[in-house]
Amino acid sequence: MQALRLLVAEEKHLIRGALVNLLETERDLQVVASIGRGDMVIPTVQECKPDVAIIDLDISNASGLTLAERIHETLPSCRTVVLAGSARPGIALRARTAKVAGLLLKTAPPERLPEAVREVASGRAFVDPYLAKLIWDAEENPLSEREVEVLKHVAQGAEPIEIAAALRLSIGTIRNYLTAILTKLNARNKVDAIRIALENGWLP
Length: 204
Known about the structure:
204 residues, 6 strands, alpha/beta, 6-stranded parallel beta sheet, 10 helices
């Protein structure tokens, strides 16, 4: 049986080396590329055409989820496994929209990575059991669709007057929405509201 061709993209050299060594001990897995920067991922995928790309969520120069989406567009046959350093339900929810096939915590047992690679290569999805439980236990979004839309603009750096113009609403209405958002999320300020919404997967 031909070995699965893998790309490993992890910023930290020691962790990247450990991942490569772990995967290379499996007879049916072959690491064809190992890189440490996000901006190298797409060119390397185009050159090596791996079956599975394993990407650090917080790799430098890019977001692991954005890279997964771009890989899906560039080489649809390549499946992606994203490695997350922390357990937040929002990560898993956003990963689904980014066409990520597998999501694994860096704290998972070592044997789980080869398992995840084989699962996604066979066409199935793989989510770390702990993250799956977080999604199951996650609270429903307390924000309305309009409030999410307003907060999304805030997260992009827009001021109330700009949001009012974009949504064709009065600036007073936008300020009312912002007050409601802070209240519903029990947030200290707009930055805190954005953080809470992202961590819970309430902000696309």
